[in-house]
Amino acid sequence: MTYEYDYLVIGSGIAGMSFALKVAGEGSKVALVCKTTLDEANTALAQGGVASVTNLEVDDFNKHIEDTMIAGDWLSDPQAVRKVVTEAPEQIRQLLEWGVDFDRNEKGDFDLHREGGHSEFRILHHADNTGYEIQQSLIRKVRENPYIDIFENHFAIEIITQHHLGKIVTRRTPDITCYGAYVLNPVTGDVDKFLAKVTLMATGGAGAVYTTTTNPLVATGDGIAMVYRAKGTVQDMEFIQFHPTALYHPGDRPSFLITEAMRGYGAVLRNLRGEEFMQKYDSRLSLAPRDIVARAIDSEMKLYGDDHVYLDVTHKDPEETKRHFPNIYAKCLSLGIDITKDYIPVAPAAHYLCGGIKVDLDGQSSINRLYAVGECSCTGLHGGNRLASNSLIEAVVYADAAARHAAANISHYDFRTDVPDWNDDGTSHTEEMVLITQSIKEVGQIMSAYVGIVRSNLRLDRAWNRLDILYEETERLFKCSKASREICELRNIINVGYLIMRQAKERKESRGLHYTVDYPHVDKP
């Protein structure tokens, strides 16, 4: 089946939905494609909040800019940083208009939190489930919009470029253009053609490439892999942020996140002997940036052979703790942990990808008519390490920029009607699902063991060799199999794992989130 839309949005988190809401209207139809349901996105799991300068009595843009540059180890693009920080307040107003409810104090002002790496209280939040509040508000607005057609449980397999028209496309081809995407409908088993004048990639992150992650298991880096295969530019993939404090409960996948706001609230990290340890690693103690805290925890665990450490919030007022962190309190209590009396077992888990599809200040990728927004994109904001709560605001600021740029140019584009149907002649449904599921487990084990918080040339070489075998096996299986979500996700996590590993090998220094024992740390300039 062939669909034609002015805009094709692949992904349904805050980035995809806010873009769709801004471009949809009379004469502008939008297809919103998501591989599960609108509810299942990284956005919904973001506990902490949204960073924006709002308390002008003590805070200002320059402070937020400097905090972001410091956290990013001075690798962030100054233009991208200034753009996000200065445009954040306007996008907060937009979220409020869409019905997002941020907590306020008794005076009616925003109840601001402070998180690691921030010099001031500037985190807007909704209790400890801010992302869920934003996601639900946007879902309501999207479902109400008559110009947005929602395609849940549809899986984008490849973006359509000149390659599908018989032209040889390489990374040096100057005019690669996106005409839409081939999308699998798992219900019918058909691969449909979605032709579009403009395509937006908003597929989120890639945490599921690792065995232990806070991401929903749909976060398999699909958009990044699709753009990489289409010869688009992907960069900074070596910078994987491991959240320092995921709830340690073996068997949980994804891991439950213990928000950084809890450390901003006063929680203290301790080893299994009950000793505080952050003073050995950084003067900012438990409020140091995430890369430093994650490495410190990793070091303590390796020093003593432990599989987790503790987060201690027992010294704070119990009722205030329950009020600030109701979902964390309930989750821990369900496991027999009363956080007002007991230490919380925590360990680092893959959490956020700072790199991705390279885009400019308008959200344009290196492929014509293809934009990328949110965690799958690399705007330059995060540099070597993301500052806490900068991701949600980045998503809406760049969705706004992409929407304005696309709307201003879409009249110059036409549908490419000579795109062939998906060709699966000679393929069959694989009866060997164990080949796929086992390979997915192997990728996670390889990435966690060799391309994790601490790396070395030897570990990266071993990852290269193991992933190369899996790549060859999977491509052979893909070519003779009917398209399925499972085999496509496997292809994608192998592609993304390869990019992380290769770009980690190329960075001959320890910088930001990329820490290798073979090269000394580089101080800021």
The CATH architecture assignment of the largest domain turns out to be 3-Layer(bba) Sandwich
Radius of gyration using CA atoms only: 22 Å
Distance between the termini: 55 Å
For the record, the count of structural domains works out to 3
On the 0-100 scale, what is the average pLDDT? Answer: 92
What amount of the residues lies in strands? 15-25%
- Give the full name of the CATH homologous superfamily of the largest domain: FAD/NAD(P)-binding domain
What low-confidence regions span 5 or more consecutive residues with pLDDT below 50?
Answer: none
Structural class: alpha/beta
Count every beta strand, where a strand is a DSSP E run of 2 or more residues: 16
Order of helices and strands: EHEHEHHEHEEEEHEEHEHEHHEEEEHHHH
Question: Would you state the CATH class of the largest domain?
Answer: Alpha Beta
How helix-rich are the residues, as a percent range? Answer: 25-40%
CATH topology (fold) name of the largest domain: FAD/NAD(P)-binding domain
Number of helical segments with 4 or more residues? 14
Biggest β-sheet strands, sense, barrel: 7 strands, mixed
Shape field: globular
